[in-house]
């Protein structure tokens, strides 16, 4: 009996990819003979290679999504997929899958291009009635899979883990550090940089813990700004780690403190205690985008929607400033004492 070949389509960002991986796990648990392929962006492929229920990755960049659909269609045709599931619907990708001749196509019923899907799920995600990981799993309902089990997996070969551990040791990373991740990649609102600096000093002085400032390479200016404001001068690893290395760093950590961003979900995936800052904005709410199963670890200034902050231009809004440093420190205390 030939294996059923399933394509999962998700070409947005790191956190979105992590919250989609439980779909691959659910497929493997419910079908005995299935081959799962992810269509994803180049930079997120690294974390998918650490997901034991993903068999293959088709990597694509932004330029290919926008203007090189023919190449993608050819790549999909060669693999003879039986089914495509659109976890992140984009019209160019929907057309590519349709043109490639994949016979079964599952996607949302609420987009103008939904006619390209022959099995549709009618559910608006913008209401944030469920978590994003749960919305992803509900796209499996046309296949008779009704699971609500959100499972994250992260696996590294022994030799790869040893390589990563050696690099972290060489960078000066000790046991049980506290990681402060002050960026969000523009996906949400940010806790003020000066608050991160004050928290870094307070945590180091109270617990004697090693403080690590982490961030993407394009967040160097932000992290340098925070570092200059500290008196304890924590270790900065901004732009110095790959996604896989960041995951292993999180596994070492006592607690991960962050805005709403992909590395936060990375920390959740590997089981790290967290403290997370979220704005009271519908599109960013923790009920949909928060650390899965850990809403008690989320700090918000208020529960009611803030229409003023929703339309604000600065990444740091008044609702984020209202989350006090002492409140964050107390939450860190709780995590370190566990």
Give a verbal description of the structure.
The chain is of the alpha/beta class and 338 residues long. It folds into two domains: 4-143, Glycogen Phosphorylase B (Rossmann fold, 3-Layer(aba) Sandwich); 158-337, Rossmann fold. It has helices at residues 14-18, 21-30, 45-48, 62-67, 69-79, 91-100, 132-138, 158-170, 193-207, 220-229, 243-252, 262-269, 286-289, 307-310, 318-321, 325-337; strands at residues 4-9, 34-41, 56-60, 83-86, 104-108, 119-121, 178-181, 211-214, 235-236, 255-259, 274-277, 298-299. It has a six-stranded parallel beta sheet, sandwiched between helices. β10 (255-259), α12 and β11 (274-277) form a beta-alpha-beta unit. It is globular, with a radius of gyration of 21 Å.
Describe the SSE topology.
Elements (H helix, E strand, L loop, with lengths): L3 E6 L4 H5 L2 H10 L3 E8 L3 H4 L7 E5 L1 H6 L1 H11 L3 E4 L4 H10 L3 E5 L10 E3 L10 H7 L19 H13 L7 E4 L11 H15 L3 E4 L5 H10 L5 E2 L6 H10 L2 E5 L2 H8 L4 E4 L8 H4 L8 E2 L7 H4 L7 H4 L3 H13 L1
Parallel strand pairs: 1-2, 1-4, 2-3, 4-5, 5-6, 7-8, 7-10, 8-9, 10-11, 11-12
Strand order of the largest sheet: 3-2-1-4-5-6
Parts with pLDDT < 50 across at least 5 consecutive residues: none
Q: Domains counted in the coordinates: how many?
A: 2
| Most strands sheet | 6 strands, parallel
Distance between the termini: 50 Å
CATH superfamily of the largest domain: Glycogen Phosphorylase B
The string of secondary-structure elements, in order, is EHHEHEHHEHEEHHEHEHEHEHEHEHHH
The beta-strand count equals 12
Q: Give the second-level CATH assignment, the architecture of the largest domain.
A: 3-Layer(aba) Sandwich
Number of helices: 16
């Amino acid at each position: 009996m030939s294996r059923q070949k399933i394509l999962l389509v998700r070409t947005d960002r790191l956190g979105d990819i992590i919250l989609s991986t439980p779909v691959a796990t659910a497929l493997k648990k419910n079908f005995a003979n299935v081959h799962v392929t992810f269509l994803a962006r180049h930079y997120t492929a690294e974390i998918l290679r650490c997901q034991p229920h993903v068999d293959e990755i088709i990597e694509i960049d932004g330029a290919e999504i926008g203007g090189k659909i023919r190449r993608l269609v050819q790549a999909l045709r060669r693999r003879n997929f039986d089914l495509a599931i659109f976890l992140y619907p984009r019209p160019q990708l929907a057309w590519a899958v349709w043109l490639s001749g994949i016979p079964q196509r599952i996607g949302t019923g609420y987009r103008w291009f939904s006619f390209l899907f022959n099995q549709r799920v009618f559910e608006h995600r913008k209401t944030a009635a469920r978590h994003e990981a749960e919305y992803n799993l509900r796209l499996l309902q046309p296949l008779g899979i009704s699971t609500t089990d959100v499972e994250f997996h992260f696996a590294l070969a022994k030799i790869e883990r040893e390589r990563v551990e050696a690099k972290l040791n060489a960078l000066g990373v000790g046991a049980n550090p506290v990681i402060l991740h002050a960026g969000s990649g523009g996906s949400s609102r940010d806790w003020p940089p000066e608050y991160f600096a004050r928290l870094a000093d307070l945590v180091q002085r109270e617990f004697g813990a090693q403080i690590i400032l982490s961030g993407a390479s394009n967040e160097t200016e932000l992290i340098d700004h925070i570092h200059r404001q500290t008196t304890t001068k924590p270790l900065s690893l901004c732009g110095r780690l790959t996604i896989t290395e960041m995951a292993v760093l999180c596994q070492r950590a006592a607690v991960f403190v962050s805005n709403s961003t992909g590395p936060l979900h990375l920390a959740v995936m590997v089981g790290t205690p967290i403290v997370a800052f979220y704005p009271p904005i519908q599109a960013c709410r923790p009920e949909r985008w928060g650390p899965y199963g850990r809403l008690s670890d989320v700090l918000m200034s208020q529960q009611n929607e803030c229409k003023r902050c929703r339309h604000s231009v600065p990444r740091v809004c008044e609702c984020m400033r209202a989350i006090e440093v002492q409140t964050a420190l107390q939450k860190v205390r709780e995590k370190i004492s566990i």
